[in-house]
């Protein structure tokens, strides 16, 4: 299938499909005229890429995970689960940092609002 067909089928912009290919996440064959042609597995690959991006994984990690899928879904081989657990722990750490920053900013805003109300 051509890139436009893949875009329509997956709902992903052509520009993003080109980006996925440039990042090594998606592969195509080139015709003599230089047009991209994707195999029948491409829509499933795009769905996997989208799911992993939605999970907050960077493209470098996604590239490493792409060969490790089992079946047509988003299930991965057991050998990469520790890597995903590490990614989850990092997300939890970022969430905790953001929660602390939000609390600190809220405290500053509240105290500033109270101080302004008394002037």
Biggest sheet strand line-up? 1-2
Major β-sheet, in short?
2 strands, antiparallel
Total E-strand runs: 2
Here the CATH topology of the largest domain equals: Multidrug-efflux Transporter Regulator, Chain: A, Domain 2
Instruction: Count the DSSP helices.
Output: 5
Distance between the termini: 68 Å
Number of domains: 2
Question: Strand percentage, roughly?
Answer: under 5%
Radius of gyration: 21 Å
Order of helices and strands: HHEEHHH
Question: What is the overall shape?
Answer: elongated
Question: Which architecture of the largest domain does the CATH hierarchy give at level 2?
Answer: Orthogonal Bundle
CATH class of the largest domain: Mainly Alpha
Mean pLDDT: 93
What is the structural class?
Answer: mainly alpha
Which blocks of ≥5 consecutive residues have pLDDT under 50?
none
Share of helical residues: 55-70%
């Amino acid at each position: 299938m051509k890139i436009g067909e893949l875009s329509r089928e997956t709902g992903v912009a052509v520009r993003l499909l080109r980006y996925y290919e440039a990042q090594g996440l998606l592969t195509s064959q080139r015709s003599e005229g230089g047009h991209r042609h994707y195999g029948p597995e491409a829509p499933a690959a795009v769905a996997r890429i989208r799911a992993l991006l939605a999970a907050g994984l960077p493209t470098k990690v996604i590239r490493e995970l792409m060969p490790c899928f089992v079946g047509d879904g988003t299930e991965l081989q057991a050998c990469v689960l520790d890597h995903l657990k590490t990614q989850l722990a990092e997300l939890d750490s970022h969430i905790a940092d953001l929660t602390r920053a939000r609390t600190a900013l809220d405290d500053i805003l509240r105290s500033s609002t109270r101080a302004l109300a008394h002037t």
